[in-house]
Structure formats: structure tokens, C-alpha cells
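Progress note, sequence design subtask.
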């Protein structure tokens, strides 16, 4: 039995007062009575009633004591406490594995300190026969150990040691939200679970999570956050964003331009003052440098020479200063402004990723028709005797079936026909053939190996073939006898053909760690390799999306139909936010701790109150009989 108000037991003082009252109560006095008869009668009465009176008085006294006791218990508020299950010691440790946890001080990184502190926490838990869970919050949060007890402590501590030895800290952002979700699963099983986050990031409102700071006061970081090469008036300007965190510093930014203008390396330097963790952007305007003008480069290395606590962001590489060449040929004995204009428009769009060399030939001399040396051939009207084998070929209104074309052509068909769709294909995306008329086309008798993409009646008029040996598009009608050139669909068709067969390999030359990178290819396979040899993979399906977990430079190698190997490069960097080694966030993802079940304690006041009423009733009854 337990008591909510133990001071209520002061009510027992009432028992002492009751005893005192009985002690001080006056006794009957003996008096002489003259009448012998009355005296004898009184003695006779007394002999009969005295035993009963003594017993009644004892019962009356007991009822009063019990009544006072019941009142005292009511004042103390008694209850019977429900049995509680034993408390199980359980702790969850989340180790932040973001790039900034690689910050080092006294030759020890934040990540290493976090792992060592988790080891100490686990030892305490195992001494109390508790459960230990460890979550590593890298690019994706995952359990390292889940509800481990002392019985498996050897394997547990070995896995923690492996985290340090295998350099398990990531180079990207940490999935803290995912780690909290994993911790929530453990808390749902045991509401007494404590969750700890070992990090160097400050959270103004961590909620139910205990944040353990593993940073050191002496840490600081000088960082290159971003670099861009901008072509201004035919010369490059290199814009560099830098910052210094946890320390104001005078930094020297160095730039090495390799293969500048097809030659050697040009070096440039510029000092910059960084204060209060603010980002500063400086520009190396080579157009204003008489001896260092740069209009083309192979690569640019931007670097700092500071001995800071986080060296990973002290280097940055810029690529894309020398675009791969793309050679295009348009041959038509009779100039067609619609085809030529569409090719020039496509060339303008593609110049972002290619150094496009465009050549247009208008001649009736068949021997002047080039069949080698180009990546994309467009022949309209008159065709060469032999088709090229080193590039993509577009045939418009062919006058014959040249050697190498696995297609039989028939007679010319005249009339009025509307284009209708054939098989779905990327080169006809967004091409609306509704109400586009054709007055004349060449009938195709045999198109084995080709896909018909558009029809005039039952005859295919736009066909495509793409395999390892040939990439050919055949349009069997002329612009002069079709309304297609009057619609926006024709430039769209030309653009689709170029994008499908000659896609840009990369959409950029700089990416963050774990950022999606889109790859495409002009050949059957593409090789991606890091310059340090740590990563190498070959792809044969496109477009392809990859994510890379290591910063550094990577090369992309392919060999298109021309047989000339093309190598392009890109740079993977840590996210700029990770360079800020003193991050502060408003709040942490909410960890919901289930409320403990209310105990169903048995309140005894009602029972004592009932006993009190019964005692008072009994006391009154005894008093009445004594009268």
C-alpha cells in the first residue's frame, strides 16, 4: 500500500486525545442511602448489568479508535500501486558521416572521435545488460548494429573499428532525416530508449534527441566553393568562390591553365581576404591580361595552399574549355533554305556542347560528293554511289538506292496525301503530322531492317535504321512537294535526329558528390574512369544515370563510327554546404517518443470511507443501547 499524502497520519493524534478524554472522565461516586430496600435493589441491578456495560464500553471505545484510524487513512490517501515492468536500458547512437566530419584536429577527425565516443557509450550499456543500436548517416542512413547485447559485443566493437579503418565517412551530405526514421523504429519498440546524435552540426531545437558535439575549438577550413569558366568576348574569365570558416584569413588563390590556347600551362594568382565565414568571389579576367589571354584550354586547376583542418575542398578542376568536334555535311545540287536553315539552327543549339564544323555543298558533280570525314551527312536529291560508313546519314528525296543502302526504291507517286504516324521513335517526338500534306514521294519496295515512322497511305515515307554498322534516316519526299517545311515540325524533326544520333555525352563538367550525372553515347559503349584509378565502369545502355561517391576528376571515353576515340572529363566535388564546418540548423527531424501508459493504481479512499460510515453507525447503536 502507498500513500499520496503521508502527512495525513497526523490524524492518529486523535487516538491519544480520545484516550485522554477517557482518563479524565469522572467516575460514579458512592453515597449512603437511608432506605435499605433501595440499596439492596440497586445492588441487585448492578450485579445484573455491570458485565454487559463493561463489554459495551470496550466495543464503543474500539469503534471510536477505528473511526479515527479510518479518518487518518482517508487523509493520507491510500492506494495500491500497479506492478511496473522493469526498465530496459536501451540507447541508439547516430553517427553523422557527412563530408564535414572529415575535419581533422590533432590528427584525429570528427568521425573518428564520434566512433570512439559511441564505443564508450556501448560499454556503459553492456555493463547494464542493455541494448545498443548504431546508425551511420552517410548518403543513405543504415543500421550498423541493431539492438545488440553484451553477448555480441565482440562483433559489435569490431564493426565500429572497421568504420575507422575502412574510412567509412562519406564525401557528401548526411541523411540525418533517414537516420531519425530508423531510430524511430527502435523507440517505437521501447519508449525508454535514448537517442544520441554524434555530430559537429548545431541544432537550435534537437527535440527528443541528445546531440553530442564532436568538434574541436581549433578547427578551421579554407575552401574553394565553386569555379566557373565564362567565355567573354572570345576570352575566358575564371570566377572562383572561396570562404574561410572559423577563422578570418588572407588566402592566396592559384590558377593553373593547362593546354592554354593549344600550348603549355599558364599560372595566375590572386590574394583574397575572407572574414566572418562570408563567401568571396574573385575573377581572373584573362581578356585583360596581355600575356595570359585564354580562348581555349584542356583543364584548369584552382587551388589553395593553406594547412587547414579540411583539405578536400582546397582543389577544384574546370573542364569543357575544349569541346569535342562535330563535323556536319549538307549536300544538295539545288540549295534548299529549309533544310539548310534547320541544320544551322540545330548547329547553334548544339554549339553549347560541341565545336560544330558545318559545310554545305551545292554541286551537280557526283565526284565531289564527300563520303568520309564527317559525323553527320545530309544528302538531298542526288545521292553518292556509295554510302558513308563513318557517320550518321540522312537521305532526303533519294534519286536512287546507293551501294550500302539495304532498301529497294520504286517509282514516284503523285497525288495528295496526308502524313500518318508509324512506329514510335525518339526522332518523331513532338512531331504533329496532322494536316501535313505531301504531293509526291518515292515508293519504298523493300525496307527490311528499317523502322517505318511515317506513312503516306500504305507506303512508308520516313524510315530509320540503327545498328552497329549503320545509322540511316530516309525521307522519301521532297520539301518542294510537301507542306512539312512550312511547319515548326520540320526543325523539330531535324533537331530530334541530331540529338538522338549525336547526343552530348555530358550535360555539364562539374557535379556534387552523390548528384545524378546523365550520360549519353555516340557509340556502343562508354567507359567512365577516375583519374586516380579508384573507379572504372563500362556502360552499354543509354541514356545512363550514375552517382559518384568520391570527389575528383573523371574521364569519359567512347569511340564513335568515325573510329576516332573521344575523351571528355568532368569534376566531382564535395557539396559547398559541407565546407562550412560550423553549420547551424534550426531544428532536427522530430523524434516521436510514445507516451508511457498510465498506471491503473487502485484508490482505497472509498473503502475506508465505507468503513468509517459503518463504524459511526455501530458507535451510535452502542450508545443507544447504553441509554
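Output:
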Amino acid at each position: 500500500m502507498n500513500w499520496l499524502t503521508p502527512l495525513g497520519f497526523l490524524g492518529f493524534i486523535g487516538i491519544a486525545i480520545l484516550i485522554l478524554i477517557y482518563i479524565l472522565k469522572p467516575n460514579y461516586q458512592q453515597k449512603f442511602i437511608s432506605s435499605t430496600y433501595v440499596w439492596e435493589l440497586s445492588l441487585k441491578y448492578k450485579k445484573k448489568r455491570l458485565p454487559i456495560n463493561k463489554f459495551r464500553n470496550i466495543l464503543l471505545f474500539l469503534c471510536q479508535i477505528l473511526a479515527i484510524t479510518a479518518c487518518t487513512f482517508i487523509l493520507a490517501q491510500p492506494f495500491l500501486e500497479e506492478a511496473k515492468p522493469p526498465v530496459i536500458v536501451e540507447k541508439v547512437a547516430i553517427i553523422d558521416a557527412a563530408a564535414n566530419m572529415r575535419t581533422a584536429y590533432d590528427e584525429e577527425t570528427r568521425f573518428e572521435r564520434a566512433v570512439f565516443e559511441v564505443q564508450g557509450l556501448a560499454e556503459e550499456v553492456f555493463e547494464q545488460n542493455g541494448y545498443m543500436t548504431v546508425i551511420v548517416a552517410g548518403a543513405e542512413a543504415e543500421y550498423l548494429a541493431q539492438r545488440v547485447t553484451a553477448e555480441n559485443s565482440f562483433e559489435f566493437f569490431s564493426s565500429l573499428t572497421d568504420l575507422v579503418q575502412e574510412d567509412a565517412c562519406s564525401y557528401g551530405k548526411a541523411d540525418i532525416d533517414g537516420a531519425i526514421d530508423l531510430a524511430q523504429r527502435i523507440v517505437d519498440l521501447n519508449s525508454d530508449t535514448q537517442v544520441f546524435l554524434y555530430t559537429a552540426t548545431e541544432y537550435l531545437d534537437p527535440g527528443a534527441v541528445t546531440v553530442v558535439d564532436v568538434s574541436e575549438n581549433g578547427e578551421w577550413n579554407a575552401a574553394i566553393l565553386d569555379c566557373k569558366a565564362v567565355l567573354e568576348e572570345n576570352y575566358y574569365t575564371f570566377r572562383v568562390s572561396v570562404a574561410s570558416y572559423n577563422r578570418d584569413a588572407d588566402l592566396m588563390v592559384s590558377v593553373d591553365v593547362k593546354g592554354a590556347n593549344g600550348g603549355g600551362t599558364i599560372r595566375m594568382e590572386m590574394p583574397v581576404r575572407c572574414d566572418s565565414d562570408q563567401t568571396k568571389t574573385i575573377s581572373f579576367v584573362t581578356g585583360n591580361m596581355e600575356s595570359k589571354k585564354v580562348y581555349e584550354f584542356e583543364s584548369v586547376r584552382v587551388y589553395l595552399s593553406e594547412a587547414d583542418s579540411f583539405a578536400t575542398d582546397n582543389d577544384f578542376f574546370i573542364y569543357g574549355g575544349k569541346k569535342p568536334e562535330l563535323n556536319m555535311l549538307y549536300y544538295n545540287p539545288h540549295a534548299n533554305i529549309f533544310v539548310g536553315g534547320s541544320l544551322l539552327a540545330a548547329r547553334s543549339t548544339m554549339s553549347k556542347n560541341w565545336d560544330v564544323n558545318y559545310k554545305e555543298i551545292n554541286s551537280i558533280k557526283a565526284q565531289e560528293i564527300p563520303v568520309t570525314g564527317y559525323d553527320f551527312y545530309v544528302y538531298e536529291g542526288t545521292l553518292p554511289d556509295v554510302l558513308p560508313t563513318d557517320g550518321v546519314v540522312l537521305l532526303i528525296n533519294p534519286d536512287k538506292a546507293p551501294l550500302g543502302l539495304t532498301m529497294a526504291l520504286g517509282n514516284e507517286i503523285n497525288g495528295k496525301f496526308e502524313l500518318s504516324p508509324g512506329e514510335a521513335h525518339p526522332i518523331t517526338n513532338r512531331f504533329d503530322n496532322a494536316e501535313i500534306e505531301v504531293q509526291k514521294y518515292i515508293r519504298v519496295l523493300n525496307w527490311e531492317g528499317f523502322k517505318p515512322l511515317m506513312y503516306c497511305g500504305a507506303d512508308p515515307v520516313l524510315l530509320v535504321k540503327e545498328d552497329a554498322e549503320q545509322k540511316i534516316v530516309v525521307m522519301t519526299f521532297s520539301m518542294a512537294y510537301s507542306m512539312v517545311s512550312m511547319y515548326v515540325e520540320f526543325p523539330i524533326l531535324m533537331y530530334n535526329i541530331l540529338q538522338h544520333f549525336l547526343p552530348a555525352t555530358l550535360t555539364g563538367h562539374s557535379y556534387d558528390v552523390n548528384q545524378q550525372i546523365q550520360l549519353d553515347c555516340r557509340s556502343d559503349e562508354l567507359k567512365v574512369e577516375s583519374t586516380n584509378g579508384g573507379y572504372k565502369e563500362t556502360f552499354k545502355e543509354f541514356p545512363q544515370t550514375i552517382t559518384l561517391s568520391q570527389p575528383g576528376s573523371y574521364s569519359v571515353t567512347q569511340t564513335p563510327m568515325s573510329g576516332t576515340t573521344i575523351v571528355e572529363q568532368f569534376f566531382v566535388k564535395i557539396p559547398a554546404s559541407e565546407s562550412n564546418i560550423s553549420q547551424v540548423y534550426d531544428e532536427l527531424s522530430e523524434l516521436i517518443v510514445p507516451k508511457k501508459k498510465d498506471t491503473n493504481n487502485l484508490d482505497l479512499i472509498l473503502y475506508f470511507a465505507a468503513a468509517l460510515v459503518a463504524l459511526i453507525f455501530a458507535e451510535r447503536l452502542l450508545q443507544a443501547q447504553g441509554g
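The CA atoms of residues 225 and 591 lie 33 Å apart. Work on this subtask will continue into the next period as scheduled.
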